[in-house]
């Protein structure tokens, strides 16, 4: 694997990250996962905009040169012969002796490399089982930060009990998102999802679904829903860069709707497929 390390391309073995990179000790950095279809980045500008938002909110001083970064990342795809897949990009606050305050002077560490990704067709066609999990994370989930311990613990719990995704709730009146996805419910044709605030990551796929909903004339409502509303919904589905749209057909013991992927999720998936064969 060839890695983009700052503005150089190096072999994975030569990409030496310092032990005192703040990503290591503090998870002090931010990241993006961008999907590649047919050699082209999908929603690149939206991902870069969110990366800038995360950097700003975390007060990491790094000026992104959009055009230059895009060229470097396209070069990265070429060097790794990626035509369909994804790239991971991470920017940490940089290297400094371990101490909590921001270092006075540090140069952010930038790395990017391809991550194999393919369309999860089986899950998209048949739906998945999810489990509820208390949202044990912090209150700045809008920052796409490297601190993912809460997400990782939730995901592993889901897999341990035979489910595929953990759906977070802050309390029974407040479902937030999945461990690595956004969550939607559908009732009488109306799509509902958590508003974009500090309790969720404003998913780029979530925003794309909002756009698709408009194109398809499907009402889209950004409003908090409860655990009871989640379980009683006609349809539930999740979204992310790598999942696109995946129907949820069971949550713990509760079967959603008739236990089969619902029509709205299918409609959105078809729209996805039309754009990216
Ligand atoms: N995860 N919520 C959380 C907590 C996420 O980690 C993600 C994405 C999303 C969906 O965002 P988007 O549509 O922009 O991918 C929502 C990425 C893919 C990951 O960490 O691998």
From TrEMBL:
InterPro entries: Aminotrans_IV, Aminotrans_IV_CS, Aminotransferase-like, BCAT-like_C, BCAT-like_N, Class-IV_PLP-Dep_Aminotrnsfr, D_amino_transT. It comes from the Bacteria. Keywords: Aminotransferase, Pyridoxal phosphate, Transferase. Its EC number is 2.6.1.21. This is D-alanine aminotransferase. One of its GO terms (cellular component) is cytosol. GO terms for molecular function: D-alanine-2-oxoglutarate aminotransferase activity; pyridoxal phosphate binding. Acts on the D-isomers of alanine, leucine, aspartate, glutamate, aminobutyrate, norvaline and asparagine. The enzyme transfers an amino group from a substrate D-amino acid to the pyridoxal phosphate cofactor to form pyridoxamine and an alpha-keto acid in the first half-reaction. Its cofactor is pyridoxal 5'-phosphate. Coiled coil: none annotated. SUPFAM superfamilies: D-aminoacid aminotransferase-like PLP-dependent enzymes. It catalyses: D-alanine + 2-oxoglutarate = D-glutamate + pyruvate. Belongs to the class-IV pyridoxal-phosphate-dependent aminotransferase family. Gene3D superfamilies: 3.30.470.10, D-amino Acid Aminotransferase, subunit A, domain 2. Homodimer. It holds the Pfam family Aminotran_4. The keyword Transferase applies. One of its GO terms (biological process) is D-amino acid metabolic process. CDD domains: D-AAT_like.
